[in-house]
Design a protein that fits this description.
Layout: H1 7-21, E1 28-31, E2 34-36, H2 38-45, E3 48-51, E4 56-58, H3 72-80, H4 82-91, E5 95-96, H5 97-103, E6 107-113, E7 120-124
Parallel strand pairs: 1-3, 2-4, 3-6
Antiparallel strand pairs: 4-5, 6-7
Helix pairs in contact: 1-2, 2-3, 3-4
């Protein structure tokens, strides 16, 4: 159709979200960096989301005048409620890991850097 809408691409995104949300075992999204637009929507379809404090969660399509895609707004509303959903949707501001933990979108993780190893270890914060 238009430059921003390809029916086959959209249908594939919806199939992916449905596969994730209906998967018979728990699904986990690990967000290290940014989850934006469709990536944010895919993470919202998971049962659990874990983020580093410096990671960002962005409903990016809202900032270019597009409505939500692939059930992201619906799933976000189920997690945060109508008031917080409106704030996120109407401002389009990126959310930090701390914001996501505060709103119940994700569990916050801590990064531990081993000086002798380039791999990153993540573990839940708190109790």
């Amino acid at each position: 159709m238009g430059i921003y809408f390809d029916e086959d691409y959209f249908a594939e995104g919806v199939r992916l979200i449905n596969t994730i949300s209906r998967f018979p075992k728990p699904t986990i999204a690990m967000i290290n960096g940014a989850a934006a637009g469709a990536g944010a929507s895919w993470s919202l379809a998971c049962d659990f989301r874990f983020m580093e404090p410096s990671s960002k969660f962005i409903m990016a399509f809202l900032n270019i005048g597009l409505s939500g895609d692939t059930e992201g707004i619906y799933n976000l509303g189920q997690l945060v409620g109508a008031g917080i959903l409106k704030k996120i949707i109407m401002t389009g501001k990126p959310l930090s890991g701390e914001d996501c933990e505060k709103y119940g979108i994700a569990e916050l993780m801590e990064s531990e850097h081993d000086k002798n190893d380039k791999n990153k270890t993540l573990r839940p914060t708190g109790d």
